[in-house]
Design goal:
By secondary structure, this protein is of the alpha+beta class. The chain is 23% helix and 16% strand. The protein is built from 8 helices and 12 strands. InterPro entries: Cyt_B5-like_heme/steroid-bd, Cyt_B5-like_heme/steroid_sf, Cytochrome_b5.
C-alpha cells in the first residue's frame, strides 16, 4: 500500500513540472502565429528549369541572350566572337531558326563549320527540363573562338582593258597614251622626242598613220626608232592589264636622238 501511495505522489509531482503546451498535438503555426506549409522540393529548390519559349523570351539582351535554333535553346550571352558582329543580337529571346538558316534573310545558309561551332552554346532542347544553368562569366576567354565561315577578302590588283575608250582618257602631255600598230604606248615621260612636242596632238588617239608617215610627211621613222618605241608599250589594244601603270621615264639615247634630229632636219 505504501508503494502505491509513493507512486501516486511521484506522478503528481511530475505533472506539475510539465508545460501544458507539450501535451498538445504538433501545430503548423510558426512563432508569429502564421500557418506554415510543409517544406517540399519544388522545381526551383531542385535547381531545374523548363526551357519554354516563355523562359527564352526573358533572355533578350546582348548580355543575357538565349535563342532557339532548330529546336535547340542556345545561350549566346558570351558570344563575343561572332564573325558578323552583333547581327544576332536582335534575335535574342526569339526563335531564330529562319534567321540562322538564311543568314538573316540573305538566303545564304551558314556553313557546316559554323553550325558545328554553335553546338557548344546549346543548353537543351525546347520544352525540356534541365538543371538550372549557372551564371555565365561574359569574358572572351570562356568561349572558344568561332571560326569565321566568311571567305577572307583577298586584295586584288585592279585590271583595266586597253580599249580605245580607255586610251582616249589619256589625252594630254602629262598623261599621254597613243596607239601605234595595235600597241598601246604610254608617252607621258617622253620628254626627249627629237621632233619636240609634235606627237602631243595624238595623245589619246590612234596614231599609227601619223607615226608611220612622220605626221603625214610621207617618210617613216627609222628601224632604230621603231625598236626604241617598244620601251613605251604597256600592252596591246584590247588586252587586259594590271592597273599599276606609272609614267615610263625613258629618254632616247644620245646617238639615236642625234640621228633622229638629222632625219627631221633633212625633212
Amino acid at each position: 500500500m505504501r508503494y502505491v501511495i509513493l507512486l501516486a505522489l511521484a506522478l503528481l509531482l511530475l505533472g506539475c513540472t510539465m508545460n501544458p503546451q507539450d501535451l498538445k498535438p504538433a501545430s503548423n503555426q510558426n512563432g508569429n502565429g502564421q500557418i506554415t506549409q510543409p517544406t517540399g522540393n519544388t522545381s526551383s529548390d531542385l535547381g531545374v528549369l523548363n526551357l519554354t519559349m516563355a523562359e527564352v523570351t526573358k533572355h533578350n539582351t546582348a548580355t543575357d541572350c538565349w535563342m532557339v535554333i532548330n529546336g535547340k535553346v542556345l545561350n549566346l550571352s558570351s558570344f563575343v566572337t561572332h564573325p558578323g558582329g552583333n547581327a544576332y543580337v536582335p534575335f535574342c529571346g526569339t526563335d531564330a531558326t529562319v534567321a540562322f538558316n538564311t543568314k538573316g534573310g540573305t538566303g545564304v545558309p551558314h556553313s557546316e563549320n559554323a553550325a558545328s561551332q554553335m553546338v557548344q552554346f546549346i543548353i537543351g532542347e525546347l520544352n525540356n527540363v534541365i538543371e538550372q544553368p549557372p551564371k555565365q562569366n561574359n569574358t572572351p576567354a570562356d568561349i572558344p573562338p568561332i571560326l569565321n565561315d566568311t571567305p577572307p577578302i583577298i586584295p586584288t590588283t585592279p585590271q583595266i582593258t586597253l580599249t580605245m575608250e580607255e586610251v582616249a582618257k589619256h589625252n594630254k602631255a602629262d598623261d599621254c597614251w597613243i596607239v601605234i600598230n595595235g600597241n598601246v604606248l604610254n608617252l607621258t615621260s617622253f620628254s626627249s622626242h627629237p621632233g619636240g612636242g609634235t606627237y602631243l596632238p595624238y595623245c589619246g588617239t590612234e596614231a599609227t598613220e601619223a607615226f608611220n608617215t612622220k605626221g603625214g610627211q610621207g617618210n617613216s621613222h627609222s628601224a632604230t626608232a621603231n625598236a626604241w618605241m617598244d620601251n613605251f608599250i604597256i600592252g596591246q589594244l584590247g588586252q587586259n592589264i594590271t592597273n599599276t601603270i606609272s609614267p615610263i621615264n625613258n629618254t632616247i639615247p644620245t646617238g639615236l636622238r642625234e640621228y633622229e634630229e638629222e632625219e627631221y632636219e633633212d625633212d
